[in-house]
Design goal:
Length: about 210
């Protein structure tokens, strides 16, 4: 019903399920293009599915690249935060060739996991992945202004809270094997309440127009 009501393409659901099937057999990604193929179906299509529900002030296709990028940024943040947790499930969601430039492979990551320490080589690799994720957030942020005014505060709040996970990873000196980077409940409430207030104000302005 929702897909029909908002004209959400069925191909997006097919792409999502394809990535979910990949998780049944794929445990490593050789390079960025391989990981991008997975993330398109597991993260980018979520942004694309949400876009018609959130609404845009211009053509939907103009906002689509930013919506897809935000979904990707959220997932890359999860990958950085959850390196140890993913290793427990036998998975590495970081491009193997990019890790290899820092002399990092699955064996090195497993050593870090077993010892609860971030090896210097792994830290350098994570710094690089962190910078790429930041770049994608910067790009995705430009799409918020393309959403309907009442949708912008909620998406901005989600972007703020998720990008702050990156702040905490960085402040911990990339100690992702000994702690899980999280945003505290107080900060979540602060950002959420502000976003809800701005969304409500936008709704009132739209009703009075």
């Amino acid at each position: 019903d929702t897909a029909h009501r908002y004209d959400i393409g069925w191909d997006l659901f097919d792409d999502f399920l394809q990535s979910m099937r990949m998780d049944l057999t794929v445990t490593d990604y050789a390079d960025r293009p391989a990981l991008e193929r997975y993330m398109y179906g597991s993260a980018e299509v979520i942004g694309l599915q949400m876009l018609p529900i959130l609404g845009t002030v211009g053509p939907r296709e103009e906002a689509a690249p930013y919506a897809a990028a935000l979904g990707k940024a959220f997932q890359l943040t999860n990958f950085l935060r959850d390196v140890a947790e993913d290793l427990q499930r036998g998975r590495v969601y970081l491009p193997a060739d990019e890790l290899a430039t820092h002399q990092v492979d699955r064996e090195v990551l497993m050593w870090c996991h077993r010892n609860g320490r971030t090896d210097a080589r792994v830290r350098r690799a994570l710094v690089e992945q962190h910078a790429e994720t930041r770049r994608i957030y910067t790009f995705a942020r430009r799409g918020i202004a393309m959403l309907r005014p009442r949708s912008r505060p909620c998406v901005a709040a989600a972007l703020t809270l998720y990008s702050e996970i990156l702040d905490r990873i960085e402040r911990s000196d990339f100690a992702v094997f000994s702690r899980r980077a999280t945003v505290g409940n107080g900060r979540r409430a602060q950002v959420a309440v502000g976003g809800l207030a701005r969304a409500w104000a936008a709704q009132l302005r739209a009703a009075g127009a």
